[in-house]
Design brief:
By secondary structure, the protein is α+β, with helices and mostly antiparallel strands. The protein has two helices and three strands. A hairpin with a 2-residue loop joins strand 1 and strand 2.
Length: about 90
């Protein structure tokens, strides 16, 4: 599994969601706009879940303080920090 290719793919999906959000903002208010907002929120949550599953596949630890979980990244010799909420945990 090539982590760089996976990261690029996730980045493209994230950029696509950002573009769709911009287009949504151009829509007139109404039920269709609300439906689009709900689907974009669902897509963002699915993307966060996909990132967490990929990270788990690479044996990264996940933050358990929220759902979907954030990825705990090494920030110090014995500290991990959540990339979403900023939670810091000890490891060793």
């Amino acid at each position: 599994m090539d982590i760089d290719l996976i990261s690029k793919g996730i980045g493209l999906v994230s950029n696509t969601i950002a573009t769709l959000k911009t287009l949504k903002d151009l829509m007139p208010s109404g039920s269709k706009k609300h439906d689009v907002e709900e689907k974009l929120t669902e897509a963002e949550n699915n993307l966060r879940l996909a990132k967490a599953e990929i990270a788990k596949g690479f044996d990264y630890k996940l933050c358990q303080r929220h759902f979907p979980p954030g990825i705990l990244l090494v920030v110090d010799e014995f500290k991990l920090k959540c990339n979403i909420c900023g939670n810091v945990e000890d490891f060793g």
